[in-house]
Amino acid sequence: MASIVIAEDDRDIAELLATVLSNAGHAVQTAPSGAAALDLIGRATPDLVILDHHMPGMTGLEVADRLRAEESTSAIPVIMLSAATPAAARHLCDVTISKPVRPKHLLEATEELLAARDVHPGTAAQLADVPRLLAVSDFLTRPAHAGGGLDTFAERLAVLTGVPTAAITLVLNDSVVVAGSHGLPKWVREAGGVPAEWSPDAIVVAEDVPVLIADSRESEEYADTPLFAVSGVRSYASVPLHSSEGHIVGTLCVMDEKPGTCTEDTVQILHSQRSAALSLLSPAGQAPAGA
């Protein structure tokens, strides 16, 4: 069960949304205005806030801006409801939903945001772990392997998995660095990687778990990030790579513009190739850590 605050000036809509979420097991409070919502949130920080944009006095966008400006509320997931969502909402809100709201759509968005909060609460702290970062930096400062071995390996990985794009990455606290690749979009290759928040690899490394996305358009967390939205990636699979000391330093990942290409079998193939990838990254004679 989660605590949820809904700010909606239309009483009928507020009651409908509250009923839908209450029936799903959540504790819901409603507020008829932005100011009333801030008062509720200030008294007891909720797990999720749902804001109508067009409210008298203070708009939903203004409420979201206030929440993001305060350290105590900046991390609360926010859903905005509006018939015409303002452009700024995409930077302040986690999800925007057009009115009229379909209850099923709202419930799905709510559950996905709450699940992401529960599963990945310490991602940033895990990525910033100093011994792990030192291990990643060690790999990054080593001379590139002769003959483009990592790119060749990525090409072979694409063939093995039957997925057209593959990469070996090293993950810092704020970025995913491409060490070797095959078929990546030009803009990713030229940049040398992507910000950590754009990529599921941040979760792979922080949680030491594989990630499988059958269709990115069904993922609230990644559907609108440039890695997926700009490049058109729909299907994605990634597994963690460990240094010889056991630090999680990067990933093996594959992706495709077609949905459903990456499956559980893809993940198993990636697992089977981790030792080979680490042997290319590691100095001669230094055995990589086991899976």
Automatic annotation (TrEMBL):
Organism, by scientific name, is: Actinoplanes cyaneus
Modified-residue entries (4-aspartylphosphate), positions: 52
A GO BP annotation: phosphorelay signal transduction system
From the UniProt annotation, give the residues forming the signal peptide: none
CDD domains tied to this protein:
REC_OmpR
The alphabetized UniProt keywords are: Kinase, Phosphoprotein, Transferase, Two-component regulatory system
Q: Which domain of life is it from?
A: Bacteria
Listed GO molecular functions?
Answer: kinase activity
InterPro entries referenced in this protein's UniProt entry, alphabetically: Bact_response_regulator, CheY-like_superfamily, GAF, GAF-like_dom_sf, Sig_transdc_resp-reg_receiver
Q: What is this protein called?
A: Response regulatory domain-containing protein
* Ranges for domain Response regulatory: 3-114
What Pfam family does this protein match (any one)?
Response_reg
